[in-house]
User: Which sequence fits this backbone?
């Protein structure tokens, strides 16, 4: 179901006036006319039925009614069930590749995306306000386009060594940890299907670590394994880091649902 993310300052008003990019999304992207409806969601995860009441040059007025759950609307896609909790720890790639990873991972239902500084990262991972604002805008665009039921968040950067404690602090002590690697780990090499089958518990949240362009070094692989992360070796092609991230999220969702 398509969603409209309500502005951060929305606090329960019966009507909402849209301007700027929000107006453009409703009128030009969704092409909604007066009387049409869609589902809205606020910053706290509450859902609303939004009805287009008035469209005029430069603004659009919506009526807002809180819902107990999302409903089919005149702009509805099939209702999706909640997906697995997947937190993507993405070692920072070069350039704007992180933007693409954030957009696609949000569309696919990642619960959180955490930039990571690892030994082979060459990108700057400082958290500037402009970068944070850009990431928030990318998430909003992706959620509205995909209708994701997951309130994806882009969190502050961490170092690779901070990942285990970061996950436990924010998402719980028990988790299924996986990392996608290219190191020669010999007897530890497994594919993702065999790993998930061996773990058995389908209800655990997933912590997934994907390396940068240069991958992980052997000390990083050893650290992750010592902290209960299972190494996943892709036995097909060598993937770019931005492709590996999407492969990881999609494979976990598909395989864990079938177990």
Assistant:
């Amino acid at each position: 179901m398509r969603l409209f993310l309500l502005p951060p300052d929305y606090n329960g008003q019966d009507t909402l006036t849209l301007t700027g990019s929000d107006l453009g999304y409703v009128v030009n992207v969704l092409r909604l006319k007066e009387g049409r409806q869609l589902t809205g969601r606020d910053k706290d995860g509450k859902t609303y039925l939004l009805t287009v009441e008035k469209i005029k040059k430069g603004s659009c007025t919506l009526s807002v009614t809180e819902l107990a759950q999302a409903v089919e609307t005149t702009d509805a896609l099939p209702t999706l069930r909640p997906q697995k909790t997947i937190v993507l720890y993405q070692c920072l790639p070069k350039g704007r590749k992180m933007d693409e990873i954030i957009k696609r991972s949000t569309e696919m239902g990642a619960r959180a995306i955490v930039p990571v500084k690892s030994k082979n990262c060459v990108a700057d991972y400082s958290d500037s306000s402009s970068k944070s604002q850009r990431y928030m805008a990318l998430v909003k665009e992706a959620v509205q386009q995909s209708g994701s039921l997951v309130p994806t968040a882009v969190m502050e950067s961490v170092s690779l060594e901070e990942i285990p404690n970061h996950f436990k602090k924010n998402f719980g002590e028990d988790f299924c940890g996986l990392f996608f690697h290219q190191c020669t780990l010999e007897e530890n090499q497994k594919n993702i299907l065999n790993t998930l089958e061996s773990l058995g518990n389908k209800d655990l949240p997933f912590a997934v670590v994907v390396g940068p362009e240069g991958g992980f070094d052997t000390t990083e692989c050893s650290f992750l394994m010592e902290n209960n992360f299972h190494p996943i070796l892709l036995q097909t092609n060598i993937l770019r880091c931005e492709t590996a991230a999407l492969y990881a999220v999609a494979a976990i969702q598909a395989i864990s649902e079938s177990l």
About this structure: Helices lie at 20-29, 97-107, 129-146, 163-171, 192-199, 218-226, 241-258. The CA atoms of residues 121 and 131 lie 17 Å apart. DSSP finds seven helices and twelve strands in the chain. Confidence is low (pLDDT under 50) at residues 72-80.
